[in-house]
Every structure is written in structure tokens, then in C-alpha cells.
Amino acid sequence: MDSTDLAPFSPPGTDEYAAACAAFQLAAPVDPAGAFTARSVGDVVRAVTTARRAGLPLRVHTTGHAMGRSAPVTGALLLRPLIDAPVRVDPATRTARIPAGKRWSDVLPEAVAHGLTAAHGSSATVGAVGYLLNGGISFYGRRFGVAANLVRSITLVTAAGEVVVTSAAAHPELFWALRGGGGGFGVVVEVEVALVPMHRVVTGMAVWDAAGAATAGPAWQRWAETAPREVTSSLRLLNVPPLPTVPPALAGRRILVLDGAVAAESPAELERAEKVAAEMLAALPAPEFSTWAPAGPETLPMTHMDPVEPIPFRSDTLLLRSLPEAGWAALLDAAGRTELLAVELRQLGGAFAEPAPDGGAFQRVEAPLLYWACGLPGERTEADLAAVRAALAPYATGLTAPTFADHFTQPQRTYDERTRARVERIRHDVDPAGLFAGDVAAIRDH
């Protein structure tokens, strides 16, 4: 087919093609037949219509953090919706309307200006819409649950080129499936999400030498199992590279880091939040240093120190049951033999585990721990990830959290067979020809 028949998609070798293909995950191949950046809902409708008439699959991405999660983008058309519209916060209803393409760094300043925040992820560079559609595991999650449960409406362009607004009252089945169903329903152009009041957060990081993990890790888990739900924390083994940008005291070392947040929704709750953070640190051995302190909610995305520039990486993830003493020993032994950049356990429980009466396809996580690890692409990293996975296999639940899955060959089951069947039926109803089938997250058990 002549490239002129694929307008508005640009062909390979053009600046427009390169801009539309740019992705945060540099390890995922992105080589579509044509690519287009949509700046309006009308642009999206044109793109969908072109792909349907050309008989070519249509793939969708914004920031490209999860580009490796579904099948490689080869031979398809690629659409990048970056809608030229502002984030609109309504302080009266405590909601925000977020156009496709906006990152959490675009949303948070607008919310914080009204004493509000969102149940965002640990990185400000992640696309807000993709994060919410894939569930969302936030450092506010033990207080407010899976972030997708806070979504109030979703506007999308279907495979037929129709603009549809879904909510609990309008197209409720599609609205249910969109929230954690695994993609492939259309091109989402706007999400309306409930915001939550937030005065301050107590956040920061405590650091130990990695040799202390055998004591600190189990102590953290014991504390986490009965912790108040306003705190969500993460314990990570980090291999810190010897870079000029890294503090000299940390550069070139393997360290154990405890970070996260305690929510203080009002000024009256700040003293309690400080006490919770202090009790958490007191339950562990004394760290080398700690930066845990009250801060504005806009600072929380910096706490986890996620990269802000595109990088190549490979990662793995599991949802885990509580680790017994033998489990900790196996994990630390396996992790200690690797060159992985990060091996993380994130605290779940609290509201994460509770079903939401109006929740979507992915609405809760029953496991108490989320495991995630990453390294630079290569054979050594693949072997290291496999070794840690094998050590944790006896404690795995068989499920994963969608936003943490990195590669389409990995196990990434997020719900049971009954939910899967319902999702598939709805997906077929809205896209019977499978125009968006390439964007569907693969469900693999092993």
C-alpha cells in the first residue's frame, strides 16, 4: 500500500515517525509500518479510521514505559495520543480530567494547588492514563486501594471510530473492563479520576549496608504485617553505580533502602504520621542515615529515585505470600549473587486487599508483598532474574500487578478465569475484528 494511503501516519525515516515512536523503555523494539502523534480527539478518530480501512493492526502508546509488556510493534501502525488540552481539576468535586499523554508531573501541580493529590505511582514521568488503566500501585495504596478504583469516567475512541464516554452509569460493562482488563478496547483520550485530600506526607529513605538485610528484612516484614494503613513502604537492595551524580557515601556500593510514604490528609494528622514513620524505623536496626521527614505531597515521586530519562532495562515481578525465615534466606542468597540494579519488596495489604463495590477488572491485590527486580539487558540479567524467581517460586501466588509487568514473555496473570472470560467477551464486542489486539497484555501462567 502506498504511504500516502496511510495518512496521517508518517513512514520510517521521518522526524515525525521518530517522535511518535520514542519510548522510555529503550530495550523494546519499536519499528511500526507508520507512526503518528495525535494532538486532538479528531486526530485519533482519523488514525483509527485509516488503520481500519488499511486492514492494519493499530498499536497505542504514550510514554512507552510499558512498551515491552505486549508483543513487539512490528508491521502495525503506531498511534501516540498526546492530546493538546490541560489537566482540569475541579476542587468542588475533587476530581481531575486528564487528557491522554499527560504524565503525573503534569497532574500533581494542578491537584496540589487545591490541597489534593492523586493515587499516583512512584515516578512522575509515567503516563497517568496508562497507569490508571492498568490498576495503579501507589504509595497511598494501603489507604485508598488500587488507583483504578478512583477512576470516575473514561473517554475512548472505539475501533468503529466512535467517541464513547464510559462510567458506572454509561456503558458500565466497558467501563469495568477498561480498568485493569489488559488493553485492546480502543484509544483512551481522557480519564476523569477522583482526587484525595493531602496536607503533607512523611517520606524519605533509610539506608543500611546490604549486609544488614538478613536482620532488617524480616524485621520490616513483621512490622509491615500489622502497620497502619496510612503507610505504604518499599524495601530494596540496590547496586549503586559509581557515577558522579551519586553521593560518594553510596557510589559503588550495595545498599538496603527503605522508602515510601505515610499520608497526613489534614494538618491534624501530621503528628500521627510522624509517629508512624518513627515506629517503623524503630522496629528495624539503626540505619546509616535516614531522610524520613514531613514534605509536600508534590515531592513524593522523587522519593523512590526512579530514572527520569529513557533507559533500556529488563525486569521481573511476582505477587508473594509472606516470606518465612527460609524464604528470606533464599531471597537474600540469590539476590546477593546477582548484578541486578534493584531487588524490591513493596508492602501491600490494607485497602489494596479490599474489594471495591464499583471496582474494575483489576480492583484489589490480596498478596501482602509485591516483588520487582531489574537490570540492564543481557544474558547475565536474564540469568539473575531467573535465579531470584526460582528462589521465590515457593511463595508466589501465581498472579502479578499489571503496571509492574515488563515483557510479553513473562507470566502476567492478573485475574481469575471468570474475570478473564468476561473481559474477553467485552473486548470482542467492542473490537470484533481485533484492530487493537496487539495491545492486549498476554496472560501467561509460567
UniProtKB/TrEMBL annotation:
Residues 28-198 form the FAD-binding PCMH-type domain. Keywords: FAD, Flavoprotein, Oxidoreductase. Its cofactor is FAD. The keyword NAD does not apply. GO terms for molecular function: FAD binding; oxidoreductase activity. It holds the Pfam family FAD_binding_4. The keyword Oxidoreductase applies. Belongs to the oxygen-dependent FAD-linked oxidoreductase family. This is FAD/FMN-containing dehydrogenase.
